[in-house]
Amino acid sequence: MENYAVVGNPIAHSRSPFIHAQFAQQTGVNIRYTALLAPLDAFESTVITFRKNGGTGMNITVPFKFEAYSLATRWTERAQAARAVNTFKFEQENGILGDNTDGIGLVRDIETNLNFPLANKHILLMGAGGAASGVILPLLQQQPNLLAIANRTSSKAIALQQQFATHGTILGGHYQDFVGQSFDLIINATSASLHNALPPAPAELFRNATLAYDMLYSTKLTPFLEFAQSQGITKLADGTGMLVEQAAESFLLWHNIRPTTQDVIQKLKAELSSHAV
Ligand code: NDP
Q1: Which domain holds residue 209?
Q2: Interface predicted TM-score (ipTM) over 0.95
Q3: Which of 108, 133, 190, 215 to mutate to test the pocket of ligand 1 (most atoms within 8 A of CB)?
Q4: Of 147, 178, 202, 258, which has the highest C-beta tally within 10 A?
Q5: Is there a contact between 228 and 208 (Cβ–Cβ < 8 Å)?
Q6: 84 and 152, same structural domain?
Q7: What is annotated about its quaternary structure and interactions (predicted)?
Q8: Are residues 108 and 227 in the same domain?
Q9: Three-state SS at 237
């Protein structure tokens, strides 16, 4: 039996073991997939020990995605562009392939599950942390008319604009810098919802949007989605679909089988609701 794990800190809340257990059952692949807590100063030694004990691959979550990028020995194009890694595939002679499946997970959820094609759209991406940098290349590959990155600390959004400038039409700045622009889709990639807060986005930015997407997965509307709804946006989505889709892409990389996701998204939603307070 092959051994996999998701590593992070904290990790107890992770739904990845649940999702991969569903995929394994669905495809008949025999795996063990656990959640592994790494001390904040011991990510590398946690990975090495897991591998020594027979590990085949790993998912990496907060706060280790940038460290995981440095530990990999080769990268997929999307991981290279993001400079962040959420999937390891262990290879011969201590090699580690690093991939980043967050962006393709988001794109699949928006385009396939929510039936919202991204080509020629004006997209506002709020936030400039690890989650934002992981999704920029896959979003630009869908050829939107514009991808605007807005962040509280505008220098980080401008740095992302420069990092991805050769891949498509991208702008970076503070939220206020985009007043006067019209957006079809607004994606919240900040961690504000984790703290029950709202990013400082002027209401004008929401005026023409038809879809609001919060990457945080939640059983109730986040402050961002509540605000979007109050501005008249009717299509609202949280990050549950993205979470399952990014896991499906990791599963494909490891096992060469693409699991179906719709059924697992529904099961995960039911599982999350059953634990909601
Ligand atoms: P980071 O810590 O790397 O980045 C946090 C970002 O949020 C920064 O841009 C920060 O701005 C901004 N921010 C934090 N608080 C506020 C606030 N009150 N107002 C405005 N901006 C704020 O986090 P990640 O990028 O790793 O994660 C972001 C979110 O994405 C999390 O909620 C996470 O759960 C979710 N996520 C979901 C996934 C899924 O599969 N569904 C996958 C990955 C992430 P500044 O730079 O100014 O500090």
Answers
A1: 103-238
A2: yes
A3: 190
A4: 147
A5: no
A6: no
A7: Homodimer.
A8: yes
A9: strand
